[in-house]
Specification:
Elements: E1 10-13, H1 17-28, E2 33-36, H2 40-52, E3 58-61, H3 64-69, E4 76-79, H4 85-95, E5 103-106, H5 112-123, E6 128-135, H6 137-143, E7 146-151, H7 153-166, E8 169-170, E9 173-174, H8 184-212, H9 218-228, H10 236-244, H11 269-279, H12 285-297, H13 300-312, H14 329-362, H15 368-374, H16 385-395, H17 406-428, H18 434-446, H19 453-464, H20 481-495
Parallel strand pairs: 1-2, 1-4, 2-3, 4-5, 5-6
Antiparallel strand pairs: 6-7, 8-9
Helix pairs in contact: 1-6, 8-11, 8-12, 8-14, 9-10, 12-18, 14-17, 14-18, 15-16
């Protein structure tokens, strides 16, 4: 066949939803691509789609050798298979036919240390390696994702022209940048997903308060979220939330959202984010609260039993299902909007601080403003205020926290009264808002120049002789607390 004599510019192995869509996106941008999948029907399916979607320059291959040899040197192969062992198996199958200078690019949600191990392993054969976070789901993969490649800089340069065309485009460039060395690309994508967990939790709490405290219908909620999406909260997640409330249930009455079981699934990146925050001693309470909520949502049966048991114990009917009387709807809607915005700033601040701590530990030299920029399009957390986050880091690359950026600080101060009203109202109504509470506690703890940690240090010194520092002179101190306290008691007794 004539066409097969021309070599492809790049290859892609792994043709599930993401792989197929990314391959078609690359072909659509005019780059001839070879594709391969162990299940041959997936190859045929992708070829069919390439024909249907405009006779795109896509070539199907049916074994690893033919696949690798159909790509021009230095070869670049993207793999999109399930994280873990399948990635190692795919690398083994392909690298047998690859040569020094060729590159493998893993586009999956991989644990960053696996990427660092693989960089070393393939390096022994002279093969270059990138771990590339890909965000935006299937639509992003097909029409323009946010891409986070980390690892070999040369491997990045070999495909930079392709990635620049394939990524989502925003006014200040394509949503891709070279992230840094090692597993930095995967780590950045992991934290992106952690921020996404926080974002989704906060939006669900806003919904819960508006529905169960304000008594708003789904059609009203659709309107409110659509309106919010035209202002400071403009983002992919707020936009899709507005759409969700409009969808009718074709299997019955009302809207589909009310028929969905309240159990949240997860793939693990949120859990990794919280674990890494703990390892690095970085506070990430909003992200942790969102993870805890997913765990609790999984206990559906236990929650139903708890509702029953507590009702029998005298707890009045679940307060959350009773619309509160005397609530000013218009004010509530505006308060919730402000609380959601302020809470989101805290969530993003936590994610950015985690990225900086890891960058310092690993010497990755991450560019925080550039990370915010590449998240402005294509990805799940894309939001208009990411441009403001970018500007904050441009103004001050060493910014300690988004909370103290002058612009964001002003906004949080302006919104704190509304934020406190929402959290207080939710608590009195018996509706849990763990994400908003965690964000507010984070803000309140971070802004206080003195905390009750002095008492904790005294306790640690009393039971474990851990010592403490003083505010009035340098050095480490230890006190015989119990002995001195008893002496004081005895002294008090003598005066009675």
């Amino acid at each position: 066949m004539e066409a097969s004599t021309a070599l492809s510019r790049i290859g892609l192995a792994g043709l599930a939803v993401m792989g197929q869509n990314l391959a078609l996106n690359i072909a659509d941008k005019g780059f001839p691509i070879s594709v391969y999948n162990r299940t041959t029907s997936k190859v045929d399916e992708t070829i069919d789609r390439a024909h249907q979607e405009g006779n795109l320059p896509l070539l199907g291959q049916y074994n690893p050798r033919d696949f690798v040899l159909s790509i021009q040197r230095p070869r670049s192969v993207i793999i999109l298979v399930k994280a873990g062992a399948p990635v190692d198996q795919t690398i083994a199958a392909l690298s047998d036919h690859m040569e020094p200078g060729d590159a493998i690019i893993d586009g999956g949600n991989e644990w960053y240390e696996n990427t660092e191990r693989r960089i070393k392993e393939v390096n022994e054969k002279g093969i270059l390696y990138l771990g590339m976070g890909v965000s935006g789901g299937e639509e992003g993969a097909r029409n323009g994702p946010s891409l986070m490649p980390g690892g070999s800089h040369q491997a990045y340069l070999n495909v930079q022209d392709i990635l620049h065309k394939v990524a989502a485009q925003v006014e200040d460039g394509p949503c891709v940048t070279y992230i840094g060395e090692g597993g930095s690309g995967n780590f950045v994508k992991m934290v992106h997903n952690g921020i996404e967990y926080g974002d989704m939790q906060l939006i669900s709490e806003a919904y819960d308060v508006l529905k169960n405290v304000g008594g708003l219908s789904n059609s009203e909620l659709a309107e409110i979220f659509a309106e919010w999406n035209r202002g400071e909260l403009e983002s992919f997640l707020v936009e899709i939330t507005a759409d969700i409330f409009k969808v009718k249930d074709d299997g019955g009455d009302g809207e589909l959202v009310d028929k969905i079981l309240d159990k949240t699934g997860m793939k693990g990146t949120g859990k990794w984010t919280v674990q890494q925050a703990a390892e690095l001693s970085v506070a990430a309470p909003t992200i942790a609260a969102s993870l805890d909520c997913r765990y609790l949502s999984g206990l559906k049966e236990e929650r139903e039993n708890a509702a029953k048991a507590l009702k029998e114990a005298g707890l009045k009917e679940e307060t959350g299902s009773v619309v509160m009387t005397g609530v000013d709807k218009k004010r509530l809607i505006d308060d919730v909007r402000q609380a959601l915005y302020a809470s989101k700033i805290c969530s993003y601040a936590q994610g950015m601080n985690l990225l900086r701590a890891k960058s310092n530990e690993k010497g990755w030299n991450l560019n925080m403003g550039e990370l915010a920029r590449i998240w402005k399009g294509g990805c799940i957390i894309r939001a208009v205020f990411l441009d403001r986050i970018k500007q904050a880091y441009v103004r001050n690359p060493n910014l300690a926290s988004l909370v103290v950026d002058p612009d964001f600080a002003r906004e949080m101060v302006q919104r704190q009264a509304a934020w406190r009203r929402v959290v207080g109202l939710a608590i009195s109504a018996g509706i849990s808002t763990p994400g908003m509470c965690a964000s507010l506690s984070y803000f309140d703890t971070y802004r206080r120049s003195r905390l009750p940690a002095n008492l904790v240090q005294a306790q640690r010194d009393l039971f474990g002789a851990h010592t403490y520092e003083r505010i009035d002179r340098p050095g480490a101190f230890h006190t015989e607390w119990t002995k001195l306290a008893r002496k004081t008691d005895a002294g008090v007794g003598a005066f009675n």
